[in-house]
């Protein structure tokens, strides 16, 4: 009796993969979940584990060949390695092997990168104890142990990518009984026949390097044991300017190398970079500026902040004033709260306010839903809650989707003036800046006032200059005379 080895799930919209490396050859004994081969798609590397113990039979798809989803890769014959456990019948057999899968990543998220393993093979864990942390395009996801036991195998190493629903590791519920299974992780490490740096690159990578005339020594490999993958070659091709001056720099490269640090971009940073560039490439983005006298807001805040905090249990900050002022202005200029969908303009009859927040891993934009229905206290509480989640890396994908307009406060970092970039598919973003005392003319006299520059970046495809200027003027008027918010003027 034989078992089929088929292509695992490749992720949404991925229709084919290339067999990069076979770790086993026909006749080799294999254990359950031992890595048999590695596939390469346009985006990620996928490891194929053995579905059963036995002996590897026929290899149907050779290295370098392309296969579709669920295609037959090889067969495994029963027996061989499968007979070995029979000798260990005297060992405790009560231990149950449990797979540790990737937790739910959120709608439309198809893959994640293993950021950190908190446990190693052989470590005991308690139920719900955090054993790993994954990183997606937007958030960090903690992986808890499904029950108490011992980690027996780690299938996905730190820095490697795993598909949604994939298996990260295995554990045993039988404590010390898990020890024999600890040998499983050794297989992937021993898989490359060569030692040291002499590893076999992905066939598709070798082919592309040959076509482009690229020296493999100039390409940094991101695959297992430094193996060069197709994506690594594509990245090298995309940066020819960096390779060109290499020769003139050679005399000082050795000295410079010790003063440089090369760190792979996190998935969050890669996504931020891609989305910001997409925004510039897609939208007809312009920015208009104004300034606001913050004295009225500051006086009102100082007058009521103690009473406000006592009653509502939250501090009265500037963000609630700006949120209210923007909501007020969006009612008059609805195109700033709209988005383009094909040849349609979709006007939002609600305000889901995005509030940009800086975190140690990058900028995220949690969304305050139905902010137009909230009070000052409600807005401050929600901003505080979302801000804490952002700093702790606990935001879910759902909490960062669906925004209709965004506010970004660069002033907390000391920025005096900037041009914020749109958060697609939104058509407007307000940039706040540092409050700075400046001389201004009020009623014919020069006085010192706490002033702030405001910037509105907007998509000129649906927002005209008149609408953008009107929006910013309404925000300015509401902040300089907060009573206008109460009177809806």
UniProtKB/TrEMBL annotation:
GO biological process: L-lysine catabolic process to acetyl-CoA via saccharopine; tricarboxylic acid cycle
Any GO molecular function: dihydrolipoyllysine-residue succinyltransferase activity
Cross-referenced PROSITE patterns: BIOTINYL_LIPOYL, PSBD
Record lineage: Bacteria, Pseudomonadati, Pseudomonadota, Alphaproteobacteria, Rhodobacterales
Keywords in alphabetical order: Acyltransferase, Lipoyl, Transferase, Tricarboxylic acid cycle
Signal peptide residue numbers: none
Purpose: E2 component of the 2-oxoglutarate dehydrogenase (OGDH) complex which catalyzes the second step in the conversion of 2-oxoglutarate to succinyl-CoA and CO(2).
Pathway: Amino-acid degradation; L-lysine degradation via saccharopine pathway; glutaryl-CoA from L-lysine: step 6/6
Cofactor(s) listed in the protein's UniProt record: (R)-lipoate
The protein's name in its UniProt record: Dihydrolipoyllysine-residue succinyltransferase component of 2-oxoglutarate dehydrogenase complex
PANTHER family linked: DIHYDROLIPOYLLYSINE-RESIDUE SUCCINYLTRANSFERASE COMPONENT OF 2-OXOGLUTARATE DEHYDROGENASE COMPLEX, MITOCHONDRIAL, DIHYDROLIPOYLLYSINE-RESIDUE SUCCINYLTRANSFERASE COMPONENT OF 2-OXOGLUTARATE DEHYDROGENASE COMPLEX, MITOCHONDRIAL-RELATED
Enzyme class: transferase
Lipoyl-binding domain residues: 2-77, 97-172
Peripheral subunit-binding (PSBD) domain: residues covered: 200-237
Organism: Pontivivens marinum
